[in-house]
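Appendix B, record 7
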Amino acid sequence: MAAHDDTAGAPRAGGADRSGFAHRKLLGILSGSWLAQACYAVVRLGVPDLLGDGPSTVEDLAAVSGADPGVLHRILRALAAAGVFRHLEPRVFAHNQVSELLRSDAPGSAHLIALMQGDEVFRSFAEIMHTVRTGQPSFAKVYGMSFYDYLDANPDAARAFNEPMGGQGPVPSLSTCDFSDIEVVVDVGGGNGTLLGEVLAGNPGVRGVLLERPDAISRARSKLTELGLDDRVTYVEGDFFSSVPTGGDVYVLARILHNWTDEHCIELLRRVHSAMAPGTRLLVMEEMLPEDGSAGASAVTPGLVDLLMLVTVEGHDRTAGEYCDLLVKAGFAVVDTRRAAASPSSGVIEAVPA
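Structure tokens (predicted):
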């Protein structure tokens, strides 16, 4: 039997061609941070917003942003060659569909993502050997505190992290859940209220409780007010490791557990368990790795996110079976596990107090 070929998509003719493809692919991966940092630089300078009114010369962009014209020209030229920005004529640049996303006011903007990736994330990956040797996130080595303590102390960084997270939209596996027979859903760590808003909009008889930190509560209130749902929501400011509101029929933990170690997950799950009355349900929604450990198509995104988590937080992505084990250890009985048809890696585990 032939050995597995890891160069899927490579040219099949000749060993030299295959070797050349592999070399180019590897160099593309190794140089990825160069372009990421170039994007960070132009976003930090405000260039994408400056180009919002139309094409501009490097000299004009440099004069407003405070950049060196020669350096800015070289950076924009490299980004245009990579498909970010258009190089219209010598020293004149404009937006294309990709670079438009770097504007701060663009729908689905990646402006804040570029800032965090180029600053906190880049510096954390630069110290990845600390994580490799100690098993601890390198973020704490670089910044002297945990990732979440850093966000608490740095509002701009918290905004750069939280707003793109809220922009992801509801968890795909939410589509497999039925809320029609309940009165109150408690979203534990519900971020900017995107998921709760989806539930309330689709179930007019349901009320919501959102537990979050104060800065997230403010964003959620604004979003849910805009959706006309604010009068059906109770906002609770707090730390879910300290207390969880009682009185819910369904409790939701969406994209929460993967941020924490097994020990912290069990601690949180027990806190939720203590708030739940008999007959209530818990829905755990996460991106779930394949049980066989393979790197199938559905595992690509979770696998990459897991690398990010490796250097920033203590948690990690897990399989459905591993999440079920945590639930059982925290005193729950698992009653169902489902996957979203449109996104098979997105799963929901339904559990009840045992």
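Remarks on this record: The first helix runs from residue 15 to 30. The first strand starts at residue 56 and ends at 57.
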